[in-house]
Predict the 3D structure of the following.
Amino acid sequence: GVTPKIKFDHTVNHVSRQADGSWLVEFTDNTGAKKSDVFEYLMVSNGHHNVPKYPEYPGNYTGKFLHSHDFKGVDESWRDKRVLVIGAGNSACDISVEAARMTKTVHMSMRSPQWFFPKFIFGQPGDVFAAKNKWLPKKLRQYALKFLVRLIQGPYSRYGLPENTTLPLNTHPTLNSDLMDFIRHGRIKPRSAIKSWSGLTVEFVDGSKEDFDIICAATGFWTTFPFFDESFINFKDLAKVPLYRKMMHEKYQNLFFIGLFQPIGCIWPLADYQAKLACMEILGKYQRPKDITSAIDYEVKHPHFDFGPGQRHAMEVDYHTFRHELKKELKKAGVDIGKPPAGNKKLYKSFA
């Protein structure tokens, strides 16, 4: 197996490309000793949810402040506290719901409208329901989902939430089956964007003010590679990541990025397919596009949906569209990953 090849408790400090195209990896091992090694190929899989984005507002907040990255759960120190969660994505909603079970009040500040989907639709997990309807044209899927969510939840204005004017799959959706219930029962209160803060007082853009003991910022993450020099590779501020199939760099054929995407669906099977494709190329069984620069340019200009602007959607993909793209690439190497399970247990893999 691969276990003997894995170096646990090692920290990669710096990676540089050598004149012969190899990779010099400098690291600290599990004894604290600094070492280095040279490799022919490099797969970067450090994730994109590890460097928090912190919001900045005029003034100075003096209460307890943390980012969702540092949130480990609600304990007794949260009991009967006034809590504000900044954001309305998946982390923000999960934290708000969990905190509302113990705290005095939970308010949730959002600067833009969001789509909130229940985790189960007609008794099926949301991704299974979506998989069974992937045959529909994209535009029809968008409007059908918009109608379905409105039918189940009603207008967002009834919850004090801003109405979303974009189509559901043009932004990364928020999946939470408890949020709307907690809002309607008054345990979570939606608020507008923050204008400023001073002491424990937060002023919102609608002119209202409120005091909070704890603020948790669920405001996303930066895409960074601390082991690369920024002059070599830097995707931090990009609105689109320039990689073929979200993994292949136009200049360096022996460099692969694995899992550097944000799917509408589960990431792990797709990251596994990327790893398979990288291995096929290393073994000489797969050939990337000859004009990879044009291929990357086409991919960047033709996203799976009309995703919103900004760094938040720089790596956004539709699960089934991306799976189909990776399946086509793997077929060129003689690998057939078959059909997606789509809730059919007979198609699930057995790891027994």
User: Anything to note?
Assistant: The radius of gyration is 23 Å.
